[in-house]
């Protein structure tokens, strides 16, 4: 406390210190300038004169991916920087063969405040998983191979990459093991369903590999995942079971291994991470681990979050699709107003999830309504939480009329034989809701079908109150039957569209300012800041 008091006179507790720091009281704090710049960027972006211009468009016959200012084409063989005034190629590698195809990828960024063994570790890199079970770490700027690890023989096909702890612990998951039809007809049994391999990143180190076995977890397992130290096992009847993954690693680890280590394991000799052996399966689960939690939910959909801890499920019957129950993780008690049902009549169901801003709130999205919900204490009942509305965002349907009975000019009464769906293409409908954490903005994409064309706009809302701050029209036609992804990253908007027959398109929008008036007024109000406009983009020098 004495150290805090000396640095922050008047701040007598941690909460007060953090509040003052968030408001920028300490000019020597390394994060102050960054926070000020992001606040300034948000103000500039929401100005009326600030526009988003379509600066680049490309089309591809293979999937297009986006990661932190980089666009990847041709199965990650081509990398394009979207940060420049106009997107430019960072690297272009020769076309790879089918045996070198990349199955999945994760962007790896340098941790702050840690000493790393190699200079290349301090720059962003791309972890990729190939079809032949190679795990590669590539330079994000040049595509150069920095590390190369062989995972396993062809009997185990690794296909998926995910984070257990973001930027710290990575999990590789195999495709589900299935015996050939001839083997099944011969009565051969397959007990191993999945393989999981776990790595610590930067420096990249092997933690262990384990099997998900029918004999331990049951015959009806359909999928598994690892997230935030929890092993999630899903079953065909909608059951979801959670286990402590760290406990499993510690309890069932037979022997630790390091990459590059020579070993003799179960009669096999090799080098860890080298061809032809790969990785040893050194975690052997011999008994059912202690169960943390289980619940039954439609389509195995369960989410955990909020404060105090709650979980969201849909009762495990098809007639309850679109009905969400919010229950206490402590004792499974349903929260007050914990049944959320928008009663939508639509082709696509509404969806719900915990707000990614770590506020503990919940976002519930329907065709024409977005509800942001929050937890409240129930008076005279400390064991139960109440779900209350924080704010709502409503689609613009002022011009839509859906009367069951209309009267013609001649006075004839006409009755409609059907009503429009809530997500009818001719009515404005929410398709995407996302959160930009650095600018603290809630973004929504709403679409309206006008004749043969669909028109979409990206709106930015205040994350605290839901107030509309900015609306950006997307110039390209939006077909609601196609698959779409929209990324909003600081001053960049990127739209990826997948059409039938594996046709992909990417549209890049960048923030530009039409006039210099706002620049001049801003520099007069803040004399210590200088604004410079290059090619329509705004730069700040402090």
What can you tell me about this protein's structure?
InterPro entries: DCAF17 (IPR031620). This is DCA17 factor. Helix content is 11%, strand content 46%. It is mostly beta strands and 542 residues long. Among the domains are: 13-46; 96-296, no CATH class. The strands form eleven sheets. The protein has a four-stranded antiparallel beta sheet, with no helix packed on it. A four-stranded antiparallel beta sheet has the order 2-3-4-5, with no helix packed on it. The protein has a four-stranded antiparallel beta sheet with strand order 6-7-8-9, with no helix packed on it. A hairpin with a 3-residue loop joins strand 10 and strand 11 (169-174). The longest helix has 16 residues, at 30-45. It starts with a helix and ends with a strand. 26% of the residues are buried.
Which terms would index this structure?
542 residues, mainly beta, four-stranded antiparallel β-sheet, 7 helices, 11% helix, disordered N terminus, disordered C terminus, DCAF17, DCA17 factor
Strand order of the largest sheet: 1-36-35-34
Helix content: 10-25%
Weakly predicted, low-confidence segments: 1-8, 517-542
Amount of beta strand: over 45%
What summary fits the major beta sheet? Answer: 4 strands, antiparallel
What does the radius of gyration come to? 27 Å
Kindly name the structural category.
Answer: mainly beta
């Amino acid at each position: 406390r004495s150290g805090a008091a000396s640095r922050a006179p008047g701040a007598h507790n941690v909460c007060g210190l953090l509040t003052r720091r968030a408001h920028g009281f300490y000019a020597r704090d390394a994060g102050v300038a960054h926070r000020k710049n992001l606040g300034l960027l948000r103000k500039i972006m929401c100005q009326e004169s600030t526009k988003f211009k379509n600066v680049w468009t490309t089309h591809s016959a293979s999937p297009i991916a986006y990661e932190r200012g980089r666009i990847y084409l041709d199965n990650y063989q081509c990398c394009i920087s979207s940060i420049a005034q106009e997107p430019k190629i960072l690297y272009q590698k020769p076309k790879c063969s089918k045996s070198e195809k990349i199955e999945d990828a994760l962007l790896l960024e340098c941790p702050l405040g840690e000493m790393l063994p190699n200079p290349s570790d301090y720059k962003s890199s791309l972890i990729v998983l190939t079809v032949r079970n190679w795990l590669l770490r590539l330079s994000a700027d040049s595509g150069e191979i920095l590390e190369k690890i062989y995972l396993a023989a062809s009997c185990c096909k690794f296909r998926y990459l995910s984070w257990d702890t973001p930027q710290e612990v990575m999990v590789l998951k195999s495709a589900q093991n299935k015996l050939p039809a001839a083997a099944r007809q011969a009565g051969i049994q397959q007990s191993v369903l999945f393989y999981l391999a776990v790595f610590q990143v930067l420096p990249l180190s092997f933690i262990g590999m384990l099997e998900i076995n029918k004999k331990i977890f049951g015959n009806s397992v359909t999928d598994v995942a690892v997230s935030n130290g929890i092993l999630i096992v899903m079953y065909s009847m909608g059951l979801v079971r959670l286990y402590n993954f760290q406990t499993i690693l510690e309890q069932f680890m037979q022997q630790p291994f390091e990459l590059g280590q020579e070993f003799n394991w179960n009669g096999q000799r090799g080098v860890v991470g080298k061809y032809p052996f790969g990785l040893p399966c050194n975690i052997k689960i011999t008994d059912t681990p202690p169960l943390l939690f289980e619940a039954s939910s439609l389509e195995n959909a369960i989410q955990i979050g909020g404060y105090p801890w709650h979980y969201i499920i849909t009762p495990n019957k098809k007639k309850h699709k679109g009905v969400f129950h919010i229950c206490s993780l402590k004792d499974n008690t349903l929260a007050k107003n914990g049944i959320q049902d928008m009663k939508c009549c639509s082709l696509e169901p509404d969806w719900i999830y915990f707000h990614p801003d770590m506020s503990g709130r919940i976002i519930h999205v329907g065709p024409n309504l977005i509800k942001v919900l929050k937890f409240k204490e129930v008076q005279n009942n400390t064991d139960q939480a109440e779900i209350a509305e924080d704010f709502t965002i409503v689609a613009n349907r002022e011009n839509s009329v859906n009367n069951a009975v209309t009267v013609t000019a001649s006075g004839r009464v006409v009755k409609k034989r059907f009503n429009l769906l809530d997500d009818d293409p001719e009515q404005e409908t929410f398709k995407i809701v996302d959160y930009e954490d650095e600018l603290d903005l809630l973004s929504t994409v709403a679409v309206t079908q006008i004749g043969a064309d669909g028109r979409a706009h990206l709106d930015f809302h205040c994350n605290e109150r839901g107030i509309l701050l900015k609306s950006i029209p997307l110039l390209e036609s939006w077909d609601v039957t196609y698959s779409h992804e929209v990324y909003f990253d600081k001053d960049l908007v990127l739209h990826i569209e997948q059409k039938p027959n594996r046709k992909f398109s990417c549209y890049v929008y960048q923030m530009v300012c039409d006039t210099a008036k706002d620049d001049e007024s801003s520099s007069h109000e803040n004399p210590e800041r200088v604004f410079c406009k290059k090619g329509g983009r705004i730069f700040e020098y402090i």
